[in-house]
Amino acid sequence: MISARILRGVAGVAGFLIVGELTIRFGLTDDVVFPPPSLVLWEAMGLLADPVFLSGVAITLTNWALGLIASVVIAVPLGVLLGSLASVERATRPLLEFLRPIPSVAIIPLAILLIPVDSMMKVSVIVYASLWPVLINTLYGMHDVDPLAKESLRSFGFGSIDVLRRVSLPSAAPFMLTGVRIAAGIALILAVSAELLAGGTGGIGVFVIQAGSGNRTDLILAATFWAGIIGMVANSLLVLAERRLFHWHQARTGATT
User: What CA–CA distance (Å, rounded) separates 229 from 51?
Assistant: First the structure.
C-alpha cells in the first residue's frame, strides 16, 4: 500500500509541474529560456533512445562508481586507524580540518593542470570530494563504540585486533554506510561538474555543454532531470541497504531519542 508520505511527495511534484506549465503557457515567462515541463519530460523520454546520451550516462556512472569505490577503500581504513589511535588523530586533525572545507569544485582547474589523463583527473576529483563524508562518519562511528564493550572483551583476554573485529567495526559500520550514502550524492555532483568544467569525450556534463551551445534549454533540463533521477535512485538503494543491514542501529537510535 502506498504510504501517505509518498502520496504527498507525488502531489507536491505534480503541483509544481502544473504551476510551471500554466505559468509558461500563459506567457508569464519566456518559453525559450524556461521550456514547459511537458516538453522537458517529452525530451527526457526521448533521451532514453539517444545513443549519444546513453553513452554519456555510462561514462558518468563509470567515473562516479570508480571514484566512490576508491574513496571508500581509502577513507574507511584511514578512519579506523585515526579512530583507534587518539595520538595519530590529534596529530592529523589540523590538516584534516584545513583540507575538508575546501570546495571540491575549486580544485578541478588544478586537477586539470596536474593530471593530463581525462578520466583519471575526473575520478581523482570525485575521490577527493567523496572521501570526507566517509572518513568523518567512520571517525564518529569509532568514537561512538561503547568503551565498556571493548573493556569487557579485553578482560576475557582478547587482543586489540579481536576487539576491533568483534566490537569496533560492527558498531561503526552503520556510520560508515551513512557516510557512503552521503558521499554517493557528492560523487555524482562532482562527476557532472568535472565534465562541465573540463569537457571531454562524453558524459552527462558534456551532453549539457553541447545542448547549451545549440540553445537547447529543453535538452539541458532533460539531461539534468535524468541526473537527478540517478542520484535519487542511488540514495534510495543505499537507504534501503541501511535499513536492511542495520535495522538494529535504527531501533537503538529511535529508543534513545
Answer: 18
pTM of the model: 0.83
**Spatial distance between the Cα atoms of 152 and 44, rounded to a whole number of angstroms:** 58
The Cβ of residue 122 has, within 10 Å, a number of other Cβ atoms equal to: 32
CA–CA gap between residue 122 and residue 111 (Å, rounded): 8
Cα 207 to Cα 195: distance, rounded to the nearest angstrom: 9
- 96-110, 216-230, 235-249: which range is least confident on average? 235-249
Cα distance between residue 117 and residue 93, in whole Å: 32
In 21-143, the DSSP E strands lie at: none
Among 14-28, 80-94, 228-242, which stretch is predicted with the lowest mean pLDDT?
14-28
User: Could you tell me the pLDDT band of residue 257, with boundaries at 50, 70 and 90?
Assistant: very low
46 Cβ neighbours under 8 A, 6+ residues apart: 222
Burial class (CB in 10 A: 0-12, 13-18, 19+), 62: middle
Give the whole-angstrom CA distance, residue 147 versus residue 138.
16
Does pLDDT of 155 surpass 70? yes
Contact 34, 217 (CB under 8 A): yes
Q: What is the signed CA dihedral for 16, 17, 18, 23, rounded to 10 degrees?
A: 90
CA distance 138 to 66: 20
- 224: closest CA among 195, 198, 199? 195
Closest CA to 172 of 195, 141, 143, 149: 141
